Amino acid sequence: MTPDTATSTEPPLWALHRELTTKTVRTDLTHAFHPGQPHFPAFPDERREMPFDMSRGDGFNVHLYTIVGQWGTHVDPPVHFVAGARALDEIPVEEMILPLVVLDISDRVSVDPDAVPTLDDVAAWEARHGRVPAGSFVALRTGWSHRWPDPAAMANKDEAGVSHYPGWSADVLRYLFEEAGVTAIGHEQTDTDPGLATSAGDFSLERYVLARDRWQIELMADLHLVPEAGALIVATWPKPQGGSGFPARVFALHQAV
Q: What is the pTM of this model?
């Protein structure tokens, strides 16, 4: 069998895989989680034990992890904020591979950590690339992931204990979900809501997202390495029955930036 013959009889999905692995960049958008990392202040820190350890003479290594579901780069399903809503095992795999839209406000955040996206930002993106695709995943690029894994830098509190970090805005979220019809969102900071809101106990934007039966990825990494349009995102996580959150592994497929 010649190479040409092999190619001509190659199953279509194998050919697609070869195309993706040879002609696209794969960018990991996930932080490696570990004890002591930044996290929501009410949550306990991660604990790790090794019930089996090769350095103690065991035949293999096994870690026992004690973590909350919302740990590191993680997925929030609707049930995280809405009783009886969809849990992790109820989100279908069809929602885990989506067109990726990157809304970039990192320049504004660099001079104003309280910055949030505006409808003008969305209009500018659409002027360059066309309408935000229905069924897409929209990631908010703020540059905040460069502060990982420093908890103080991520929280960015002033002398009064108020956090100053970017978040989403109500106008933009309403447009994305109610007009554009996106499937999910993601962001680099700890919360959907900006620090000024969460410091006052206001998580209304996160509640809005999840109450619409949508899901989100928090604490994304390296969004500066992917284009603002044209990429695909793959978001995966374990399947705990009734699960309200779990660390996720998220990556993008795209052309070189």
A: 0.94
Could you report the per-residue pLDDT of 78-101, keeping only the tens digit for each?
999 999 999 999 999 999 999 999
Q: Residue 8: which pLDDT band, with cuts at 50, 70 and 90?
A: low
pLDDT, tens only, 149-158: 999 999 999 9
> At residue 45, does pLDDT exceed 50?
yes
Q: Which of 82, 49, 76, 91 is nearest to 190 (CA)?
A: 76
pLDDT averaged over every residue in the chain: 96
Tell me the C-alpha to C-alpha distance, in Å, between residue 225 and each of 76, 117, 128: 24, 20, 19
Going by their DSSP bridges, the two strands 62-66 and 184-187 should be labelled as unpaired
Nearest to residue 253, comparing CAs of 236, 237, 235, 233?
233
**Residue 247 contacts residue 72 (beta carbons within 8 Å):** yes
